[in-house]
Design a protein that fits this description.
With 124 residues, the chain is mostly beta strands. It is built from no helices and eleven strands.
């Protein structure tokens, strides 16, 4: 059974940091890219970062570039999203998702597997 378990969300003040984890099981981790998505209230879900588990190549959208860092622990089938310098506009439910590595990894409608979200709330 494929499982993606996102965790690490919480309440943090603006300027603070959080680290999200995405633990994967039930598929060959190195064959997939893992993406982080978020959905704020009233907005569409957006892809913000992803990493190819095989070669470590990563991607970021401009809104998080320089503040967020994605990394992969292949020994433990886990992907992390270190979020620094958080802003109130980062408040959202964060999801991780997986797609075969030969496909785009930031397209919400193209992902193969999704985990349940974890809520990140950034207060001013």
């Amino acid at each position: 059974e494929v499982q993606l378990q996102a965790s690490g969300g919480g309440l943090v003040q603006a300027g603070g940091s959080l680290r999200l984890s995405c633990a994967a099981s039930g598929f060959t981790f190195e064959d997939y890219a893992i993406g982080w998505f978020r959905q704020a209230t009233g907005k569409e879900r957006e892809g913000i970062s992803c990493i190819d588990s095989s070669d470590g190549v990563s991607y970021y959208v401009d809104s998080v570039k320089g503040r967020f860092t994605i990394s992969s622990d292949n020994a433990n089938n886990t992907v992390y999203l270190q979020m620094n310098s958080l802003k109130t506009e980062d408040t959202a439910v964060y999801y991780c998702a997986a797609v075969l590595r030969e496909y785009a990894c930031l397209a919400s409608n193209g992902m193969d597997y999704w985990g349940k979200g974890t809520l990140v709330t950034v207060s001013s």
